[in-house]
Amino acid sequence: MNEISSHKENEGAPGEKLLQRIAMIAGVFSFVVCILMVANYIQLKKADPTNMQVITALVDRLNQNPGDTVLREQIRTLDLLARKAYFTSQWQVRMGGYLLLAGLAVMLIALQWIRLRRKINPQLSEEQDLNIFVVQKKARILILSGGGLLLFLSLLFGFLTNRELRQKTSDATKIAAVQSDSTGVQTRPVDSLAASVQGSGEDTTSAVASNTTTLMAGVAEKTAFSQAGSAEAGQPLPASEIYPTFRGPNGNGIAVQKNIPLDWDGPSGKNILWKTATPLPGNSSPVIWGDKIFLTGASETRREVYCLDKNTGKILWTATVPKIPGASSQVPKASKETGFAAPTAAVNAQGIYAVFANGDLIALDHNGKQLWVESIGFPNNHYGHASSPMIYNNMLIIQFDQHTSAKIFAVNTSNGKTIWSANRPVKASWSSPILVPNGASKEVIAAAEPYVAGYDVKTGAELWKLEAITGEVGPSAAYANGIVFTVNDYSKLAAIKLGNPPVQLWESDEYLSDIPSPVATDKYLFVVTSYGVVACYDAQNGTKFWEKELNNSVFSSPVIAESKVYLVDRTGITHIFKVDKEYVSLGEPKLGEPVSCTPAFANGRIFIRGEKNLYCIGK
Predict the structure, then answer these.
(1) How many CB atoms lie within 10 A of CB 127?
(2) Which one of 149, 168, 183 terminates a domain?
(3) Does residue 117 register a pLDDT over 70?
């Protein structure tokens, strides 16, 4: 009896009582947090934080009166409130998870401490000792099971909350996005639990892909629509031998051509030298080599490369991609906005290199003869493959970030054999790589959640990576004067100064893009949102100089030529303005056809791919 009472006295020691209270409080706290997370989900099921019915009604009214700017602004404001609701919910889920883990950890530590402090009297009988051991074992199992159940329920309802909010936001923003071309309103729906969008340019915030779901409108708007540069016959290429591809020779959206037109009109034919219907649709941009223009088009079952005469627009030849041994026979998932030919091709003196939505890669000479074909693997993403390849010397560089795996690799342009390959610890992306100076060489910059990373262009070795972007990344990076600029919807706009190590100079979350890529000079950075706002920043410190509402949505990326920015909106209007700290419009010529692609430039000419035709503009 004395032995048992001695044991009970030990249990009642002041230190142990305190630990018992701590364990009890932590357990109750964890239980309450779990209940709140369940209640949060139930409330979300009942409520509509995205105001979907209101947005639907407002969009219907805007369709009847598309010139009502006040109504358009109301829709945009509601879209912003939906984003705020999204981020608030994400914060609640995230903090709830942290608090739950903390509570369970405190409870388990306190219980373990009690167990270690509790000393069983050695004079107890074997039967009493066994009974106490059994009771303690059952208690531990009960506590661990209960804690595990709490954790499981919290994670489950956290996931369900994310999915429910994603669906509600997606439904709401899709309603507005469907009408974006006619109303100028472009909001973006939520899409991936792992991604809180970037938006290739065009919304006020880029999503946090790994921690949140996306608010990107338009399921395929995540595709990085291509932008191409051009190389004239006899015109010297950059010393690094980078060739025409997505957003020009360096992938930066800077055109070196001269005498670019400022005035044209598609409907009347003013300064339209020719237009040619494209046989198959595509969101790839044209690339130019000498007197030839190369373009791609595709359907679910057919993939083609076209060569046109630059002076007349005549289609010189069409090459069809054959069945590639070992390639998947599946039809890839691709939204209407992405399509099956979103990547822009790359070209050098030997040939033209094109990638399609199913992972087919074909190399053709300039006369249309097949050089080689390869399958880079069947893309695993939910918008369709859109990343464009680029060329450095004898290497074709491809960014291939998919749900199941992510990598960037280089193949030999002569035979398609892999030269180097680097795995990437990132989520799926739709952006394209760019090349920037690195001493006497170049480095490849690629962006996908959560990293902006640099790779040695000759070996593929990772040089650095910085957590600076989240969401379903569509826009490619921009570069000027030693600074890399990245942006994504529902994430942030970030300026990264290259160095050892690179550092982030500044960031902003006011105007973000989910499709258009930014463009920069030594002084200025221009960011375009898909809902149609252009913003100009000080490239060095992030000071915003101006913003301009275009009243139409935008998918293509801006290009700088002769100190002017050329930006084509979805209706086919090209907004031309000065590269300056003040907005000065130089013209708004109309093509008369919807446009998603970025134009290519030649001396004295612009080539714009519309929904149905390729246009040559010049005097």
Answers:
(1) 8
(2) 183
(3) no
